[in-house]
Specification:
Length: 119
């Protein structure tokens, strides 16, 4: 089992930045690819990006490419989501996820952290 705990959510103005963290714990926590999803009000949860277990390979959704950066601190079993130039449409609950199957579906989920971007 892997437990994921997100932190760093909050309220910001449009154009500002915010950095989220997700700490993984559990016997196999360091062995899995990890990533971020977002669920905006009234919308389905969407994939934002993911990083390999080593942190060397990272993939992003087109909607956030160039604005969001995922990084990983292997020593702390933690991944980060640096969000820049935030827009009101980035508002939502941000979820950390780990251990993706071949269809891209995660096995483990965090409980989410809210982000609100005001115009």
């Amino acid at each position: 089992q892997v437990q994921l705990v997100e932190s760093g959510g909050g309220s910001v103005q449009a154009g500002e930045s915010l950095k989220l963290s997700c700490k993984a714990s559990g016997r196999t926590a360091s062995n899995h690819a990890m990533g971020w999803f977002r669920q905006a009000p009234g919308r389905e949860r969407e994939f934002l990006g993911a990083t390999s277990w080593s942190g060397r390979d990272t993939d992003y959704a087109d909607s956030v490419k160039g604005r969001f950066i995922i990084s990983r601190d292997i020593s702390k079993n933690t991944i980060f989501l640096q969000m820049n130039s935030l827009k009101p449409e980035d508002t939502g609950i941000y979820y950390c996820a780990a251990d993706f199957d071949r269809f891209g579906k995660p096995t483990y989920w965090g409980r989410g952290t809210p982000v609100t971007v005001s115009s």
